[in-house]
From TrEMBL:
Protein name: Uncharacterized protein
Region entry Disordered, spans: 1-23, 125-171
Organism: Coniosporium apollinis (strain CBS 100218)
Polar residues bias spans: 125-134
Domain of life: Eukaryota
Residue ranges, compositional bias (Basic and acidic residues): 148-171
Bias type Low complexity, positions: 1-19, 135-146
Length: 171
């Protein structure tokens, strides 16, 4: 289960927090993995504050199987339910993004006390459609003059191209 957090719209924000089972007033500890940033134990209250400050982030939940010391985070784990069903046929939806090792205390509390049932994954709000907008092909500031290195000795008529600093070959 996942959703995006949007502090601009309180109705959407409330529905998102309830769909992710986040309670702004709950100080109970949860396990949070920030995509490409690390793992930490924090309160639901702190996570809600973080998401309010960073409205272009989303949170998703992944169940932690009892007895596992590692969790595999895949691309599909970052998507909300509609996106997950829409993008399930994409070849990279099952790609592994991270293998997260649980801290010992979290592992034992999960195993013995049934705490930390879910891993909350915080990631930038993205999907395959929005990633196209960030690709070099769609970049408006990428031009051939920046892509190819132009050499003042280069010639286009089929003759040998000399590199800068290279001595001309005897002909």
């Amino acid at each position: 289960m996942s959703g995006t957090w949007n502090s601009q719209n309180s109705q959407e924000s409330t529905s998102t927090s309830s769909s992710c089972d986040l309670n702004e007033n709950d100080s109970s500890a949860i396990l949070v993995y920030r995509y490409r940033d690390g793992l930490e134990v924090q309160s639901q209250q702190d996570l809600c504050k973080y998401l309010t400050k960073h409205p272009h982030h989303r949170v998703s939940r992944k169940r932690i199987p009892r007895g596992n010391s590692r969790i595999e985070v895949k691309t599909e784990d970052l998507y909300n339910e509609p996106e997950r069903s829409a993008y399930q046929k994409y070849p990279n939806s099952k790609n592994s993004l991270a293998s997260v090792g649980l801290p010992r205390a979290v592992y034992w509390k999960r195993l013995l006390l049934n705490q930390f049932q879910d891993l909350y994954i915080v990631s930038p709000d993205s999907s395959p459609n929005s990633s196209l907008n960030g690709s070099p092909e769609s970049s408006h500031h990428c031009s051939p003059s920046h892509t190819f290195h132009h050499d003042q000795h280069a010639q286009m008529d089929g003759e040998r191209v000399e590199q800068v600093g290279e001595q001309p070959a005897d002909r």
